[in-house]
Amino acid sequence: MDYTTYFTQNTTDKITKDLIGRPLIFNNGEKLGGYIVEAEAYMGKKDRAAHSYAGRRSQANEGLYRRGGTIYIYSQRQYFFFDVACQEENEPQGVLVRAIEPIWGIDTMIKNRSGKQGVLLTNGPAKMMQAFGIHSRHWDLHFLSDSPFTIDLDDNHKKIPQEIIAAPRVGINQSDPEWAKKPLRYYVAGNPFVSDMKKRDMREDHGWKE
Known about the structure:
210 residues; eight-stranded antiparallel sheet; 8 strands
C-alpha cells in the first residue's frame, strides 16, 4: 500500500492506532529506528489540541494541510517532533509519533543522545528525534517517500501488541476538558519505551505477542 492511500483511507484515530508496532526508520546514511510503541492522533480544525484548531494556518503548521503522508516537523524551544499528515489536502489532521522501541543503529542513537541509553534512548518524541540526529525542521513538508524516513506498511513486518491502550494525550490544556480527556493516545501496554511508563507496569516481553 502506498503512503497516500494509507494516510487517507481511514479516520486519523484509526490510522494512529494501526501505526503501533510498525517500523519507523530514519536512514540518512545509516539505518536508525525501531518499532512505534506510542502515537497520538490530532483531529484537525475541531480539535482544540491540534495546531490547526479553528483553521489556523501558517508556515509553521503548513505540513498538516498537505496530503496524507506528508511529514510535519515542529519545534518547541530546542526540541523537534515528528508528525505525519493524515487525510486529504486541506483537511489538517495528523499523527504525532511519541516513542519507538529501538532496534536498528542503537550505538549511533546512543551517541546522538550523548550517551543516554536503555529506556531513556527513545521514550519520548523529542528524545526519538535526538536519537535520529535531527536538530532542525529540514524534512518538514517533504512527502515520506521523498525523505530519509520510512514507515514500513508491510503487515508481515509489524509487531503485534498483546494490548493497545487508548488514553488521553500528554500535556493537553485542561481548560477544554472534552478534548483533554479524549483517548487519542495509543500505546503498547507494558512496553518500557512508552513515555512515562511506570516500572511496575513494564512487562518483560515488552507487551508484544510472540
